[in-house]
Amino acid sequence: MHLNLAAALTALAGLPAAVQAVAASSRPNIILVLTDDQDTHMNSLDHMPLLQKYLINEGTTFTKHYCTVAICCPSRVNLWTGQLAHNTNVTDVIPPFGGYPKFVTEGYNDNHLGLWMQESGYNTYYAGKLFNHHTVDNYNAPYVRGFTGSDFVLDPSTYQYWNFTTTHNGEKPKTFLGTYSPDFTAARAFEFLDEGLHAVDKEDKPFFLIAAPIAPHAQVVLYPTMEAGPPAAAERHQHLFPDYVIPRTPNFNPEEPSGVSWILNQPRLNDTVIDYNDEYQRQRLRSLQSVDEMVAEMVARLEAAGQLDNTYIIYTTDNGYHISQHRLMPGKECSFETDINVPLVIRGPGVPAGLVKDAVVSSHTDLAPTIMKLAGNALRDDFDGQPVAVHAAVNSGPEHVGTEFWGYAIPEGKYGYSGKYGFIDGPANAHPNNTYKGLRIETARYSLYYAVWCTNERQLYNMKTDPYQMDNILGEGRKSEPRELLLGRDLETVVDRLDALMLVMKSCKGQACVDPWGQIHPHGDVSSLADALAPRFDVFYKRQPKVAFTKCELGYFPEVEGPMDYHVFSRGVLDQIREQLPLVDPHWGQWT
């Protein structure tokens, strides 16, 4: 199936003229394009010229947008609920801790964004991948609720680009041979888009459309053994990018290892593996070209129908991806920037064109509140995020994002793994003890990443001076070095604050996730790490419980994740604390 812009415009010429008239009072339409495993740090967006033309040049790019859990199913539940994974309790891609069955048993099939939008008067549509373990056997047990129209790709062939099965509007699954999966998803998305455009005209009823192609996810075959290799590309794109190589950044197959736990023990990649990995990424870029064409055709159809200026288009992915960085085989699930920093581009009414926002962070838990606000709907009390300031030229969000992960890290590609999948043992070569809690803090003045692993190893990167996360300030090799200054304070003092912030974030709910400093300092005098570093708080933070694990688990078990309660600062003890501190901090002037 070859979908192109000219064909789209030809098809649109036959639409009724009334469809092209837009009522000025119409609520906005919203389209969410959700790719699978798309990277930011290997510059995949630079290789999508139509996305550049129609979304990036005409909308706003958020370069500091993060997923909160670097794996598809938990991340997608974040997107559909506006809640963090420790609150949804969907923490994996398969049962018992994840997948579609877990989404259902946790009650989210009756309580998610599609339903909320539908209940508020929107027609809602979904084309493509929903979750792992949404299968030919359980697609109707129960049916996915919340969508006026749907076409879901189903396991066990979700990640097979040329041989896959779908269920259309809940009908009996049908297998498609010789059809390219991202093209098929695009075609279904266009059908739903046309249906939505007609409803806008006939009923003045807006639409919410999700298009979720599998590109650029690995092509996965589950039986008789599990194998994951590079994605397949449509024939028309197979010739592209012959000279592309993964950027040789400082973290690309470094001479010295980096990170903690199993990552610290990875051997350097040899030339054969590096050549394979470069081609692997070329295939990922080629697979994205179908998505690139889909975006352009969506814009063309909206424009021909007179609805482009009344439609928000949001482009993102579920999680990032690494290939060869930190000596890693292709994959995700890690705490590095490659895995958690993901694309976000938004175009729509009032959104600044050609703007790049690179200061304050936002996260996937912010997208459900954002979509609800754009639709004119009330925000829910159980949202763990807040709307992204899509219309503002300047960021106004918090400086932090909390990240988390449970279970295995699973390398992909022929040098990564193959083998029968078993939940207890994992695939062959899967890495256990990949459970961690993380914090990403970003401002114009400081940029940090802090993580505590279930092994109680810790990571801290000063990303102003170490953007590629090569020098773990808390690493074993640095123990003998003198205490150093970070943000003008000694390292231990800064880590005390980061630990306290993580203590709130690792179990937060609702507003506590948006304003964690306000939970510790309810009087409102601390709203950032910079505020918290005031010397008068040193003793208070020194006495806070510290984040620690007692065991590495494959799912969320709060009882093994250390202290959950934190101390709240009281002004009533302020004088007592000040008496224990020097009146002047000799380092204060170095960072304020």
UniProtKB/TrEMBL annotation:
It comes from the Eukaryota. Its EC number is 3.1.6.1. Residues 28-376 form the Sulfatase N-terminal domain. Keywords: Glycoprotein, Hydrolase, Signal. It catalyses: an aryl sulfate + H2O = a phenol + sulfate + H(+). Residues 1-21 form the signal peptide. Belongs to the sulfatase family. This is Arylsulfatase. The lineage of its organism: Eukaryota, Fungi, Dikarya, Ascomycota, Pezizomycotina.
